[in-house]
Amino acid sequence: MLEISNLVKRYGSDEPVLKGLDLVVEGNTVVSVVGASGAGKSTMLRCINRLVEPTSGSIKLNGRELVNLRGANLRRARRTIGMVFQGFNLIDRLTVMENVLAGRLGYVSLYQALTRKFPQTDIDRAFHLMDRVGIAHYANKRADELSGGERQRVGVVRALMQEPEILLADEPTASLDPKTSEQIMVLLQSLASELSLPVLINIHNVSQARTYTDRIVGLRNGQMIFDGTPGEFNQEALDAIYGGIEAPDETGGEEQQAVETSDT
Which residues form the ABC transporter domain (predicted)? Predict the structure, then answer.
């Protein structure tokens, strides 16, 4: 279970990006977070995995406070938080298998990491997960030879190799064509159920949020202004979140919106 309480993130003396955010994610729930660029969606995810430091507040994962962790304790906690990135974050010159096994770097010695001598159990698990998402036949192919959808599947498997307690996905479909983006959403939805894994997804595409997630959280100016089921996510909620601006949908509107590269 992820428990966020009164989370605040401020950059310098500017107005806070997150303003006392509260959120609970549990079970194998798939939760989408929607909102206009600058709403704080990516900042929230980066606070959870400590890519950015929260200014104040509490973030607990299965009862363990993450905000105050440092050093080895922080590294151990990060192993339990899988992350799927919009830009894939693969090492292009390495093979698919090598990129996937990078998800085990937090579990092996420095020597094993440098020489890429991973335990056979890790290799077996990598093949199993790659087969599950349909990329096992690319194991020895360089990452830069893959399509966008294939690269994102590599990113998903790399995150799952961490054996995470939660999976975070930051705009995982924004760089993909509509058909491929829907395939990735279906994959995340099914993996949450199969692995009993909570999944928290930042997404611009409101239609996909309605179709593929169990719960929608709406942010505006760093504050939560909606939390409910897709069926409850009506026009009133859309207007409140986007301020009357037409929300992006499956027609490609998400690619016409400013992508949250910094989300500040």
Answer: 2-246
Radius of gyration, CA atoms only, the chain: 18
In a domain, 145, yes or no: no
Per-residue pLDDT of the chain (264 residues; tens, 9 = 90+): 999 999 999 998 888 999 999 999 988 899 999 999 889 999 999 999 999 999 999 999 999 999 999 998 998 999 999 999 888 889 999 999 999 999 999 888 887 888 888 999 999 999 999 999 999 999 999 999 999 999 999 999 999 999 999 999 999 988 888 899 999 999 999 999 999 999 999 998 999 999 999 999 999 999 999 999 999 999 999 999 988 655 566 444 433 333 333 444
37: in domain: yes
* Residue 121 lies inside a defined structural domain of this protein: no
Dist CA 216 CA 174 (whole Å): 18
Q: Mind giving me the DSSP string for 196-251?
A: T--EEEE-S-HHHHHHH-SEEEEEETTEEEEEE-GGG--HHHHHHHHTTSPPP-TT
Would you call 258 helix, strand, or coil by DSSP?
A: coil
| 66/59 Cα distance (integer angstroms) | 6
In a domain, 131, yes or no: no
Decide the pairing of beta strands 56-61 and 223-228. unpaired
Tokens describing residue 75: 């590294």
Compute the distance between CA of residue 226 and CA of residue 57 in angstroms, rounded to an integer: 20
Place of tokens 């993909």: 176
State the CATH number of the domain containing residue 212.
3.40.50.300
Number of domains in the chain: 1
Per-residue tokens: 89 = 């974050």
Domain that holds residue 33: 1-80+166-172+196-264
